[in-house]
Each structure stands twice: as structure tokens, then as C-alpha cells.
Amino acid sequence: MRRDAGLFFVCAAAFALLINSQPAFAVLPLPKHREDVTKLTKPTVCYVTRDSYEIGLIDWDGKNDRVWMGDGKARFAGNASWSPDGKRAAVVVYDGADRSYTPYVLNLETGGVQNLLEWLPEGVGDYIYPTWSPDGNWVTIVDTWRITNLILAAHIFKVNIRSGASVQLTDFPRRNPAYGKPSWSPDGKKIAFGALEEPHLVNDAKTNKEIYVMNADGSNMVNISNHPIWDVDPAWSPDGRKIVFVSARDYAIANAWDLYMMNPDGSNVERLTSDAYFESFPQWSPDSQWIVYYSGSPDPNEQQPIGSYRMHVATRKAELIKRDVDSPTWVLAGKSRFLSVDPAGKKHAQWGKIKEAEAERPVQQE
């Protein structure tokens, strides 16, 4: 399925149109990855190709582009989600033959693979959108399905990757299911996510989507966006100070979905992009200085290239990383996870230099 930018962003969910009412069973195996990312030495972004749905890697400045995972059979439903220590990656493989989704956790050091369907309860839909807790012990994942062609339902689970224990965090009625990818706070105490508000028809013009924050055990759910226009795709900054998200609140003016940023309590909303394009999938760099995101256009004649971008948050300067790929995120593996970049001279920032020096300093024997 080739994603149409307009329809894709109006729906604000990468794979909602593929979701069916059948249980997800493993059919296709996880393709072999082609590079040991634990040995990366440069800030690296991974992405999903829009035609073959392979996962690619590219240096943050748009150089050294290559395929990381893909075999021409399995299609990746979204990008890899990297564990905080950079030693594991969670991915979801879509099998077009039987329309099933299979979530895996890959151990990047040993090559071991865990099929999460063995640990999760047998859902009525498909498990998608895996995200890691800051301690690396839990993966949140969304069980989502269609009740009818118009009505969507979804719940958020978390699964412990060490014990296999799973916990259902939300129990929404059909009128306001979870929607999109959850995002953990850096202290591991809270989770931000999107949810539909009444009415419950997925494509109803009156349907609204809001951003919520709940405790990591699913309690104390609070609407932090509180806006009559759609707000989706929250991502918590690693320093804990901000949540970036996508909103259509200025769509009538700009004819687009833009990136916004707010405090974790919903206050101090700032607009980050102001263009006639559809932004989505924002993700922070490890030092909270940069955001990578996808930018598309409903008009193929627009001048700005469709693809993955990076933005320096302080200056709001955005640059294209690669055309015609989406769902970008930073690879949290190897030394690249410690590197920040000075936007003025494009040199390693002092914090990154210190981290490298500490890692390479020989241990003194007493």
C-alpha cells in the first residue's frame, strides 16, 4: 500500500487503514539486520522507505545512506524503537498475505529475537507502536482493531521484556480509544498518548483527538492538550521539560498540520513549524536539542521536498535529511547516542566530547 500524504495525515495514524478484525499471528520471520549499530560512531537517523517499507540508516547530515533491515517480503509497520541503552530494538512486521502484524524485540548484541505475541494476550486486533520505558525493562504497545469500517478501538499494554509479564494500562470504551504511539516521561513515571474523543467515528469531522498523560500503571489519566482541534503524536523530550506534538489547530490558516511544543502539564504551547505541509512522527535527539520528523504535502507540485527532516529546536532551523522516507527517529546505539551537534559549526558539542573521552579513557589500576 502506498501511503497518500493527505489521507495519511488526516487520519494521523500510519497503519489504521490496514487494521483488521482478525488476531495477529506470526507468519513472516524477522529479516536479518545488515549492520551492527552498536558500533556506530556518528549521530544516525533511521527511517522507513515509503515504497518497500524497509528500515534504513543515514547519518544525521544526510550522508552514508543504507538499508538496515528488509528482505522484500516483510514490510515494517513503522520504524524501529530503540531501547535506552542501545542494546535492543523493537519492530513490527506486517505480512500482506494474511494482513497480520508481528511485534519483535531484537537483541543487538546477541542477535536473539523475541516474538512479543508469545507474551501478550491474544488480542482481537493487532499490536503496533512499541515504545520503551526509560529503564529498558518495559515496552508499551497498542492493541488496535476496527469494530466496523468506521469505528476504531484500541488499548495500551506494557510488557516486561525480562519476565514476559504483560499489563493492560487502558480500558477505553469504544467511543474514545487510544490513538497513536505512546511516549514515556524520562523518569519512567508517566506516559503520554493520544486518544479519540466523542463522537467515535474515525473519520467524522466532529471527532476530536486529544493528548493525555497517565501514570505508568494506567492511573490518573489527564487531558493536557484540551483543544477543540486534533492534537496527536506526542513525544516527551529526554530532559523531561517539553512534549512535542502534531496539531491541526491552525489548519484553517496554514492549511497544514504543524509541530507544536508544550510543557508536560499542557501549558506554554509554542508553534515550531509554519508551512503548508503535514508534519508528523516527531522524535527528540538524546540531548533534547534536535527533533526529527516527517513532512509531506497534499499537493505534489509543492516545492518543499516530501521526506524526513531535522530541526534545531532553539533556532527552529529545519533541514532535509532524505526525500521520500518517513517515521524518522534517532538510533540510540553505539557512540552516536552520546553525540550532540553544535548547529553553528556542525561540530561535536562539548557534552558529546566529554562523553567520548570518558568512554575511551583507559582504566587505571590501583
CA gyration radius, whole angstroms: 19 Å
Largest sheet: 5 strands, antiparallel
Tally of strands = 27
In terms of DSSP E residues, the strand content is 35-45%
Order of helices and strands: HEEEEEEEEEEEEEEEEEEHEEEEEEEEEH
Properties at a glance:
mainly beta, 366 residues, four-stranded antiparallel sheet, globular, 6% helix, disordered N terminus, five-stranded antiparallel sheet, 27 strands, disordered C terminus
Would you summarize the structure shown here?
The chain is mainly beta and 366 residues long. It has helices at residues 5-11, 251-254, 350-360; strands at 44-49, 55-59, 66-69, 75-76, 81-82, 88-95, 100-107, 113-115, 126-132, 138-146, 152-160, 166-168, 178-184, 190-197, 208-215, 222-223, 231-236, 243-247, 258-262, 270-271, 278-284, 290-296, 307-312, 317-323, 325-330, 341-342, 347-348.
Give a verbal description of the structure:
The strands form seven sheets. Strands 4, 5, 6, 7 and 8 form a five-stranded antiparallel beta sheet that branches. A four-stranded antiparallel beta sheet has the order 3-2-1-25, with no helix packed on it. The protein has a four-stranded antiparallel beta sheet with strand order 9-10-11-12, with no helix packed on it. The protein is built from three helices and 27 strands. With 366 residues, it is mainly beta. The longest helix is centred in the last third of the chain and has 11 residues, at 350-360. Strand 17 and strand 18 (243-247) form a beta hairpin.
